[in-house]
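S.,

Sequence below, as promised.
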Amino acid sequence: MRYALEDMLVTPAEMAAIDKDAADSGIDSFSLMRSAGMAVSAAALRLFPAASRFVVLCGPGNNGGDGYVAAEALAGSGAQVAVYALGDPNKLRGDAAKARSACRLGVIDLEAYQPQSGDIVVDALFGAGLARDLPDAVQKIIERVNASRVPVVAVDLPSGIDGRTGEVRGASFAAAHTVTFMAAKPGHVLMPGRELSGTLEVFDIGIPARLVAARASDLRINGPAVWRQYSGGLRPGTHKYKRGHLAVLSGGLTSTGAARLSAAAGLVAGAGLVTLGSPLEAAAVNASHLTAVMLKEIGTAADLAEWLRDKRLNTFVLGPGFGVGKKARDFALMLCDRALVLDADGMSSFQQGREELFQKIAESGGQVVMTPHEGEFARLFPEVGADTSLSKIERAQVAARLSHAVIVYKGPDTVVAAPSGRAVVNVDAPAWLATAGSGDVLAGIIGAHLAQGMPAFEAAAAAVWRHGEAGIRAGRTATAETLVENISPLP
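The prediction came back faster than expected:
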């Protein structure tokens, strides 16, 4: 599948290789730096035309070179500009030294900067390649700027954000706007980097797209381009018998609401038929709340085994309100040869004995999606969750390989990862989506997509995106019930 540059995520290491490939192909690297710096100056002028002064903070590498280009361009436009540098600008090398020489402005030591009212800071200290804590002197400047609430335009990534993980390395500017080049980096979309980057602008500085694509791994920002080719069967006009049969398994008498939310979401999201499998003691309360969703008495493993004789029953959701324990484990192991969304209690039941589940998934050939939030992930994959050297993307990828399942690692920066290494990061979810029952709704949407024949990775990615869009439509007062009401057709 072909993706546009705006869909791609490129790691800092991949970007470094892309830059080298561009230089090796004969592209003048200084012309790329000029394009980057000019893009930054244009963004600063566009966003802050009434600025009293642009203060450009330049680092000791190529990010600083972008800053010197931007400073000269800003001054050439008639703006008031001051340049502050970290280290001795005379020690710059290569393109950064050339950019400094072309900048006719004087340079002041970074530590002397004191924010003033009307300043706009252009942060060109460190870019996406930062992989160590910032020097103390830089951290103090950042704290000074953040405390002053002076707006910041960041070059590539706010200084202090690790471009691979999105984590803060000691301190970070809280940018109003970030200009990056050719493709977004993981640090732009993973928290807290996403929040600290402000609005993100990806600017094409002239590296051929083929060079970017040749180095980029299969890592994307989640959106319709990832799964559109599989969404044709989800059209509202498709006959119900061609849209699959989704079964959601309910918990006991006092724990039925979560499963009903999943079932309702599955029906709205497009499953042709939805049945709630309920133990006898909860059948009456479930029946009193169901209309279009059908009801089936499923209380024991024997009941489930009998039901599974119907091969038209192709997809299950197990976990929402189901209860933790042996019954959940037994049911899950019986369902691994079908399409299965293992959520909440279904996952937590395998905190001990997860190897049996992972082996069963590998052997059974079904399509299994697991949907852990941070706590569930730490319980199911303790050694992966404890590895602080890994980004959230990398943790999800490792968990997917271990489990042989598609992992939906939930949060404000939900990551969907496949055992093959494919991964997407979702960026459309509003903060208010973190409401009670929201995860149950997501499980139902994933189930609906699986029931209609979407592959597990695309089914999960599309559901996460659709869930976020429902949150936006439902608004700040969203509840799980209103999320269901606001599930719209896939584009």
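DSSP finds 21 helices and 17 strands in the chain.

Coffee later?
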